Amino acid sequence: RKLFFDTHALVCLLEENGFTTQQSEIIVSALVKIMNTNLDMIYKDMVTKVQQEIALQQIMSHIGGVKKDMIILEKSEFSALRSENEKIKLELLQIKKQVMDEITKVRADNKLNLNLEKSRVKELVSSGVTFVFNTFTYFDTHAQQDRALTQTDRKIDTEVAGLKTMLESHKLDNIKYLAGSVFTCLTVALGFYRLWM
């Protein structure tokens, strides 16, 4: 180990200031021991440039692995969202189809009832006895069916709006989760980086 001062010159300086040769040599050897001990303690906490480069490469490889994992996670999350959206779309299409079938059935029933009522009205006109009574009944049932159709349409619109709202909230939750994961990974990476620095 190199010393950064001249020990012989220090011994001579101490002798000039009143110390004996033996005292001067003991003081200088004590100083050398103290310096060596301090340097040993400093060297324990230090790393070589090669070790620092190895640690940096390890951290960079960990960061690369985290980036790859984040990309895979992001792709899997988006594919899961897409598949869930497709399922919801299919369910909506099925519900729409069922509702349209129900509306078609109701309309067919209404047409049939209308035709039946028309034939009844014709019979009543020919008989002339209960024409006014059946006419009021016909209009009352027709109004009830129209109200039922209107209520069904409103229920469908409400269900579709609820499903759209739920889909948007799921999208927002997944985006929040993804952002949280990204920031967590960045924090961990910065923590490792700071630890190794």
TrEMBL record:
InterPro entries: CCDC90-like
Keywords for this protein: Coiled coil, Membrane, Mitochondrion, Transmembrane, Transmembrane helix
Major place of residence: mitochondrion
GO terms for cellular component: mitochondrial inner membrane
Gene3D superfamilies per UniProt: 1.20.5.340
Residues annotated as transmembrane: 177-196
GO biological process: calcium import into the mitochondrion; positive regulation of mitochondrial calcium ion concentration
Family matches, as Pfam families: CCDC90-like
Protein localization: Mitochondrion membrane
Family: Belongs to the CCDC90 family.
UniProt-listed PANTHER family: MITOCHONDRIAL CALCIUM UNIPORTER REGULATOR 1 (PTHR14360:SF11), PROTEIN FMP32, MITOCHONDRIAL (PTHR14360)
The protein, known as: MCUR1 regulator
